[in-house]
Amino acid sequence: MIEFYLNGEKVKTDAAEDTPLLWVIRDEFKLKGTKFGCGISMCGACTVHVDGNAVRSCIYPVGAVKNNRITTIEGLNNSHPMQKAWVEEQVPQCGYCQSGQIMQAATLLAQNADPSDEDIVNHMSANLCRCMAYKRIQRAVKRAAQDSAVGVYEPGSDNQGSYNQQVEV
Ligand code: FES
Ligand code: FES
Q1: Can you tell me the distance from the alpha carbon of 60 to that of 3, in angstroms, rounded to the nearest whole number?
Q2: What pLDDT, in 10s, does the model give residues 112-140?
Q3: Does 86 lie in the same domain as 23?
Q4: Which ligand is closest in space to the CA of residue 36?
């Protein structure tokens, strides 16, 4: 039996220790906000926090979280500054990647209250978005951190390339 804290509540599971945390969260505890994208740690859709650190739950064995504190998107309670900024910037398109994006972004704010554009790119660039919402994501992170990102970015389509391409432009 594996015990851990899930969004502040002590829980236990008898899942095999090598079961990916993602499936325990989704299938056993019915928290469906955390998504399955690639299953090989390449996209970030499955990002959750383990003791405040962003991890990819699709490859993270549940046996590794004994007594750790797991936070999923549901654990942010729609009250995290990042979630507020996400709404204000109307970030999601299809939405599939978004919980992972927010969970990844939330760890940046915890580490760096005033991230530069480069800090944001470096922290977020491994979270993929098929809808190319990168500029809105970047803007929302900035807004959450500084409460004033409007006008910082060049006008034009918000659906462009990738973070790295933005840096090069
Ligand atoms: S589903 Fe975990 S990184 Fe893609
Ligand atoms: S909003 Fe569709 S994949 Fe990111």
Answers
A1: 15
A2: 989 999 999 999 999 999 999 999 999 99
A3: no
A4: 1
Taking the centre of ligand 1 as the mean of its atom positions, its distance from the CA of residue 117, in whole angstroms, is 24
- pTM to 2 decimal places: 0.88
Closest ligand 2 atom to 94 CA: 2
148 and 101 in a common domain: yes
Report how many domains make up the chain: 2
DSSP 3: E
* Final residue of a structural domain among 75, 100, 129: 75
What pLDDT digit, counting tens, does each position of 32-49 carry? 999 999 999 999 999 999
Lining residues, ligand 2, CB within 6 Å: 92-98, 129-131, 133
27 in Cβ contact with 20 (< 8 Å): no
H/E element holding 85? helix 81-88
Interval between CA 87 and ligand 2 midpoint (Å): 14
CATH number of the domain bearing residue 93: 1.10.150.120
